[in-house]
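Slide 14.
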Amino acid sequence: MEYRNVGKTGLKISEISLGAWLTYGGSVENDRSKLCITKAVELGINFIDIADVYARGKAEIVVGEILKEENYNRQDLVISSKVFWPMSNNINDKGLSRKHIRESIENSLDRLQTDYLDIYFAHRFDPYTPLEETIRAMSELVEQGYVHYWGTSVWSAVQLERAIGIAKNLGLHPPLVEQPRYNMLDRFIELDVIETCKRNGMGIVCWSPLAQGILTGKYNENIPEGSRGATTKWLKRELTPKNIEKVKQLQIIADSLEITVGQLSLAWILHQEEISCAITGATKQAHVESNVNASGIKLESDILQQIETILDNKPKRHHLYNPPW
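Slide 15: predicted structure.
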């Protein structure tokens, strides 16, 4: 496993990290969750990314129990969680108000059975809360030792610039890491988010690097019954004949390099120095092992050009920015 700094901070995380979205505490049984997490740590993954809203708190509970049972040294791990999405029908149990942030961090720490988080993400931008209020609340968490760094997830370049500018003017802790969706089929951050993060010293830890499995080739022939492609809404926009054909062409390149198309997809993301890590999901130990083997793969310029020709997809504005309320 190779490691990278998170932006200009001194924090180092594994190039391949493990995320709990759509898996632990939900679709994956606890025993299999434990096998995946322990295998990940064994293979050098030190960054585990969660969110309070994943399985409505159950993901945090499951991960917390596993980490406690395995008696890992807390200092060896980088653990993150997030705040924003509704956790109940309570009108204040959502968003990025100071009230919700303070109450949410306490709940997340309880579920994870830890005294602090290494990174705490604002899980979307909240247009209904003054940005200064959010920044002050997050900065207080850093000052008080609840979190080491705070970050953002799926914020636009303009929103990031505003947050950093306000924090600088008020002498507060700015966001130091952005977590966007990014993969070969969804390249919107190439428009301006990557450059904004680079200019401001922010790290980038991207989720959905394999497009919920499309870029592993598992859907090349059909959509398996019970798979994410058959049961979730997240794949409908990208699970198209055109994209499947691209994956098949990428498979040819992967075969020539004697790696999987999934590893090729992860290596393509990691060839960019601005990316701190790719957050991968795993429902089996074999998935963890395959993903980890993408760390350290170097793609030559001619391979990158071949990939670019196949993808032929200029970055577009994203559809994930606005909250549903």
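Speaker note: The first strand starts at residue 3 and ends at 5.
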